[in-house]
């Protein structure tokens, strides 16, 4: 029997044992399975079999006798270790298997960071060649990148990988983190996972050589202003982490242009054919390095890439980073943070740093300081109560419907309906506020699908015995949506009165955020809230206070 025949025989035996374990798992059979895995080279078949029995080990461990816990823990560790070389998430779990759960990095953050972990796996596997990542400060992004680069270095010790940031302080901190993960054999298991040796470290140049000394080290950490030419010929992963130093640099077009020249000439030029790019950082501007690179990829095509944005608050206004063991940030923290930015009239920075949405301040129409607010108590003697409704038709759009109470020449907005749910949810919500506030008229922006929406709303109101006029009116065809909002902006700023920040519900706050972040000089992901206010202003003020047009700059 040849060596290849023997290998096939061991693989077949391992697969047979795996099948038996699914029917009747025992500790002895589990150990037999891992004995087979240790006798031959790893393969896709064995990796798949290992992943199929890992849940069986975890299940058995939860219900086993106390005398068996140690054995099942050992088996679970073996399963993680076998998969760790090929699977980034398994690597993360194996690296910290012996740490107390509350001290681990990945496990408490797994629910939120899993999409990013999977995207990093796709980057390493070559399914994508570039990955763009944004998430709020202190939520684990850079630490996850650190683990990722140690995984890549263990898998490909003779590759050359580059980490760059805006300052030497950041690259030095990242370098120290790499050493902590790769050299601390008590806390982490990097050496056990890869059976590799770090042969050379250079703290001055922030380099790591694995397996053997090379002209271009396995990992080089260098700031964008450092000497990149000649320091690295990257064959593996190029990481650009927060290349923009902050808001001061982002607000300067000249400095942004200068930064991109550095990125293009000094950073990207170090990449060899086949190298992969990982772009991370705060999205300060559409003209920041991430924005410029994305626009290039969109324009030219041909390079598979992916964008992962993990915002501070989800679509329900709840924290995405309320991690276990108190290591994250809850909804209240982010609400307070957002209110602080609003008080400083700097919601653009909130959107950039915490929501991953670059806002161009030049074209902002609605600054927080220029709007009017009330404490929830309205004067007596209203003229009318009406709703201007901008319906949603899929594609992530929101139904935006401010409840408007006209008192004299002022329009108070005590409540809003703002949701991206389908009409089975949004129509009853709309009917409820019509009844609650005694709304006498609803105007819905008309298009080819609006009449059915209006008819269904009328039917719901009729069943509930609610009297309200429901109208549809087409938007003017001779002006763009942006122009209509621009025209009505003075009335919205001067005559509309909104709830104070501490009086708003989550949908109301999301509505206001959509208003504050609207810009006429850049791209708007959603413009439903300002569009509904422009419609409401048109229902009250027939002639606009503004004169002239704006010019769009893309």
Structure summary:
The protein is an alpha/beta fold and 554 residues long. Helices cover 46% and strands 14% of the residues. The chain is globular and about 95 Å long.
Description:
- With 554 residues, the protein is α/β, with parallel strands linked by helices.
- The protein has three domains: 82 residues; 221 residues, P-loop containing nucleotide triphosphate hydrolases (Rossmann fold); 179 residues, Nucleotidyltransferase, domain 5 (2-Layer Sandwich).
- It has 19 helices and 15 strands.
- Strands 3-4-5-2-6-7-1-8 form an eight-stranded mixed β-sheet, covered by helices on one side.
- The chain is globular, with a radius of gyration of 29 Å.
CATH class term of the largest domain: Alpha Beta
Care to count the β-strands? 15
Task: Give the structural class.
Answer: alpha/beta
Report the span from N to C terminus.
Answer: 69 Å
Q: CATH H-level name of the largest domain... which superfamily?
A: P-loop containing nucleotide triphosphate hydrolases
Would you tell me the overall average pLDDT? 90
Principal-axes geometry comes out as: globular
CATH fold-type name of the largest domain:
Rossmann fold
**Second rung of CATH, namely the architecture of the largest domain:** 3-Layer(aba) Sandwich
Lay out the secondary structure.
Layout: H1 3-23, H2 27-39, H3 44-63, H4 69-84, H5 88-95, H6 106-125, E1 130-134, H7 141-155, E2 161-164, H8 168-183, H9 190-194, E3 198-202, E4 207-210, E5 219-221, E6 237-241, H10 247-250, H11 253-267, E7 276-280, H12 289-300, E8 305-309, H13 331-343, H14 347-355, E9 372-374, E10 384-389, E11 399-407, E12 410-419, H15 423-437, E13 441-446, H16 450-464, E14 469-474, H17 481-495, E15 496-499, H18 506-516, H19 528-540
Parallel strand pairs: 1-7, 1-8, 2-5, 2-6, 6-7, 9-15, 10-13, 12-15, 13-14
Antiparallel strand pairs: 3-4, 4-5, 10-11, 11-12
């Amino acid at each position: 029997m040849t060596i290849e025949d023997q290998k096939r025989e061991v693989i077949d035996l391992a697969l047979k044992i795996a099948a038996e374990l699914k029917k009747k798992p025992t500790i002895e059979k589990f150990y037999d399975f891992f004995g087979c895995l240790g006798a031959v080279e790893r393969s896709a078949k064995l990796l798949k079999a290992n992943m199929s029995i890992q849940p069986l080990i975890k299940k058995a461990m939860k219900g086993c006798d106390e005398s068996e816990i140690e054995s099942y823990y050992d088996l679970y560790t073996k399963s993680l270790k076998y998969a760790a070389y090929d699977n980034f998430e398994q690597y993360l779990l194996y690296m910290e298997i012996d740490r107390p759960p509350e001290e681990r990095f990945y496990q408490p953050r797994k629910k939120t960071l899993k999409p990013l972990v999977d995207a990093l796996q796709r980057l390493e596997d070559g399914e994508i060649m570039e990955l763009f990542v944004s998430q709020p400060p202190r939520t684990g992004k850079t630490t996850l990148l650190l683990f990722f680069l140690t995984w890549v270095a263990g898998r490909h010790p003779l590759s050359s990988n580059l980490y760059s940031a805006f300052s030497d302080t950041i690259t030095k901190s990242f370098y120290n983190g790499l050493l902590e993960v790769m050299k601390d054999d008590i806390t982490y298991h990097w050496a056990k996972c890869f059976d590799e040796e770090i042969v050379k470290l250079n703290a001055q140049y922030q380099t790591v050589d694995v397996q053997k000394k090379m002209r271009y080290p396995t990992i080089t950490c260098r700031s964008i202003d450092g000497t990149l030419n000649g320091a690295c010929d990257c064959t593996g992963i190029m990481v650009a982490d927060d290349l923009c130093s902050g808001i001061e640099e982002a607000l300067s077009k000249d400095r942004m242009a200068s930064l991109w020249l550095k990125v293009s000439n000094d950073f990207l030029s170090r990449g060899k054919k086949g190298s992969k790019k990982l772009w991370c950082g705060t999205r300060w501007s559409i003209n920041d390095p991430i924005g410029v690179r994305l626009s290039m990829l969109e324009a030219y095509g041909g390079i598979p890439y992916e964008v992962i944005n993990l915002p501070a608050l989800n679509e329900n206004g709840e924290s995405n980073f309320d991690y276990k063991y108190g290591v994250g940030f809850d909804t209240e923290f982010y609400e307070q943070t957002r209110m602080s930015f609003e008080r400083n009239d700097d919601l653009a920075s909130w959107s950039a740093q915490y929501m991953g949405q670059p806002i161009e301040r030049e074209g902002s129409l609605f600054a927080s300081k220029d709007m009017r607010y009330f404490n929830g108590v309205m004067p007596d003697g209203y003229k009318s109560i009406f709703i201007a409704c901008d319906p949603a038709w899929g594609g992530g759009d929101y139904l935006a419907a401010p409840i408007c109470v006209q008192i004299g020449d002022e329009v108070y907005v005590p409540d809003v309906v703002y949701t991206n749910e389908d009409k089975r949810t949004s129509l009853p919500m709309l009917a409820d506020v019509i009844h609650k506030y005694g709304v006498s008229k609803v105007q819905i922006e008309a298009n080819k699908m609006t009449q059915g929406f209006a008819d269904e709303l009328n039917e719901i109101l009729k069943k509930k015995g609610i009297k309200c006029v429901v109208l549809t009116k087409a938007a003017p065809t001779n002006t763009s949506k942006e122009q209509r909002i621009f025209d009505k902006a003075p009335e919205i700023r001067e005559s509309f009165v909104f709830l104070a920040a501490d009086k708003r519900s989550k949908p109301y706050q999301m509505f206001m955020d959509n208003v504050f972040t609207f810009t006429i000089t850049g791209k708007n992901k959603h413009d439903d809230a300002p569009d509904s206010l422009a419609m409401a202003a048109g229902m009250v003020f027939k002639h606009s206070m503004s004169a002239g047009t704006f010019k769009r700059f893309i």
